[in-house]
């Protein structure tokens, strides 16, 4: 290694956030106001992975700050966790136009960022919100209605897929099933609810 390059910089959540902010790997960067790398503590026991930022997230540069974000905050509080205790990220880090679902190519472009975040945070449990996140972490073609509530793994980490809060806002009847999934997460983390 040439001396002027110096030693490699260890990976960090801040380094990933900076790289996300400069990323031009797919067309989503062209319409972003702010990249939304994710937020939360290093070594959080629970990591939440959603689909991608919406308009309010794009404006704030933070994940889950709109109506779905408030519902996510309420969901976490229901299992005695506060947002600042959880690492929250999305599959894609820039807002898809008009809040459409990210394309597989867009998800693939962001995949290394999410993989590095998961490796660094090293959560015990990953709460997988919705089909897009499930496909990114579990493989294409999964149906969230078929897999929600069923534990699976990603390496040594436990994955719990469930409905996305935005979907719950559209179909509140699914909150009952989601509550059962959240109770499973709490039990895995030894939290009494």
Describe this structure in words.
The chain has 193 residues and is of the alpha/beta class. The protein has a single domain, classed as Uracil-DNA Glycosylase, subunit E. The chain has 8 helices and 5 strands. It has helices at residues 13-22, 55-60, 67-78, 104-121, 130-138, 144-147, 165-170, 175-188; strands spanning 46-50, 87-90, 125-129, 152-154, 157-162. A 5-stranded mixed sheet has the order 2-1-3-5-4, sandwiched between helices. A hairpin with a 2-residue loop joins strand 4 (152-154) and strand 5. The longest helix has 18 residues, at 104-121. The model has no long low-confidence stretch (mean pLDDT 94).
Overall 3D form: globular
The major sheet is characterized as: 5 strands, mixed
Q: Span from first to last CA?
A: 53 Å
Q: Say what the CATH topology is.
A: Uracil-DNA Glycosylase, subunit E
Rg, please? 16 Å
Number of domains: 1
Strands, total number: 5
Give the averaged pLDDT, no decimals. Answer: 94
CATH architecture: 3-Layer(aba) Sandwich
Strand content: 5-15%
- Spatially, the strands of the biggest sheet line up as 2-1-3-5-4
């Amino acid at each position: 290694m040439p001396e002027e390059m110096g030693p490699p910089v260890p990976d960090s959540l801040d380094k990933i956030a900076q790289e996300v902010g400069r990323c031009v790997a797919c067309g989503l960067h062209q319409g972003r106001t702010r990249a939304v790398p994710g937020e939360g503590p290093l070594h959080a026991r629970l990591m939440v992975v959603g689909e991608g930022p919406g308009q309010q997230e794009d404006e704030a540069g933070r994940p889950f700050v709109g109506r779905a974000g408030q519902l996510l905050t309420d969901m976490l509080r229901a299992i005695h966790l506060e947002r600042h205790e959880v690492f929250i990220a999305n599959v894609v880090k820039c807002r898809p136009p008009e809040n459409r679902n990210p394309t597989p190519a867009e998800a693939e472009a962001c995949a290394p960022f999410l993989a590095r975040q998961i490796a660094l945070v090293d959560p015990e449990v990953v709460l997988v919100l919705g089909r897009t996140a499930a496909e990114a972490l579990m493989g294409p073609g999964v149906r969230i209605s078929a897999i929600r509530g069923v534990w699976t793994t990603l390496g040594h980490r436990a994955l719990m897929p469930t409905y996305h809060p935005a979907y719950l806002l559209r179909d509140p009847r699914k909150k009952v099933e989601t509550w059962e999934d959240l109770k499973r997460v709490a039990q895995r983390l030894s939290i009494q609810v």
